[in-house]
């Protein structure tokens, strides 16, 4: 199982490399926004649990649900570009619902926030997290 999963990861890594090389060959790499985001952990046959030494029942563990978001762009909102040297990474509870509002916000595109479930990831708002007991927890974002 693990070998098949690792082979898939290697295949994805190579595909991203091919895409980046083609963008550079076409001369459009510097004008292209690339977003890499995973919408889940490696849940296939509890691989994440096995790798992190957690029992299969522990599906709500924070380490299983921490996934990457990588944005490479030269055309992001100037206010974020000014902070770009300061931001290496940050931790915040987010979901796939937050991705589109985040991209619109970073590109400076005005949008009706009531039409989206998620919120821009860099906005100074509180996150709401539903825990395994179906109760709500408010998580402050500073």
In words, what does this structure look like?
With 142 residues, this protein is of the alpha+beta class. It contains four helices and four strands, in the order αβαβααββ. The strands form two sheets. It has a two-stranded antiparallel ribbon. A two-stranded antiparallel sheet has the order 3-4. The chain is flat and about 45 Å long. The termini are far apart.
Assembly category? single chain
Strand content: 5-15%
Number of helices: 4
What is the rounded Rg?
18 Å
Biggest β-sheet: count, sense, barrel? 2 strands, antiparallel
Q: Give the integer mean of the pLDDT values.
A: 76
What spatial order of strands do you see in the largest sheet? Answer: 1-2
**How would you describe the shape?**
flat
Tally of strands:
4
> Which structural category do the helix and sheet elements fall into?
alpha+beta
Helical residue percent?
Answer: 25-40%
Span from first to last CA?
A: 40 Å
Secondary-structure element pattern, one letter each: HEHEHHEE
Which stretches of 5+ consecutive residues score pLDDT under 50?
none
Give a brief outline of the structure.
The protein is of the alpha+beta class and 142 residues long. The chain has 4 helices and 4 strands; from the N terminus they run αβαβααββ.
Index terms:
single chain, 142 residues, alpha+beta, two-stranded antiparallel sheet, 4 strands, 31% helix
Give the SSE layout.
Blueprint (H helix, E strand, L loop, with lengths): L1 H24 L8 E4 L9 H6 L16 E4 L5 H6 L15 H8 L20 E4 L5 E4 L3
Antiparallel strand pairs: 1-2, 3-4
């Amino acid at each position: 199982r693990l070998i098949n999963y690792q082979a898939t990861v290697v295949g994805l890594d190579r595909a991203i490399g091919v895409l980046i090389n083609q963008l550079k060959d076409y001369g459009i790499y510097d004008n292209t926004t690339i977003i890499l985001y995973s919408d889940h952990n490696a849940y296939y046959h509890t691989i994440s649990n096995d790798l992190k030494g957690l029992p299969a029942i522990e599906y709500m563990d924070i380490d299983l649900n921490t996934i990457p978001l990588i944005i490479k762009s030269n055309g992001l909102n100037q206010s974020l570009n000014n902070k770009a040297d300061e931001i290496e990474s940050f931790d915040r509870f987010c979901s796939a619902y937050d991705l589109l509002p985040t991209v619109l916000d970073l590109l400076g595109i005005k949008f009706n926030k009531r039409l989206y479930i998620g919120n821009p990831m860099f906005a100074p708002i509180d996150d709401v997290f539903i825990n395994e007991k179906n109760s709500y927890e408010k998580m402050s974002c500073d």
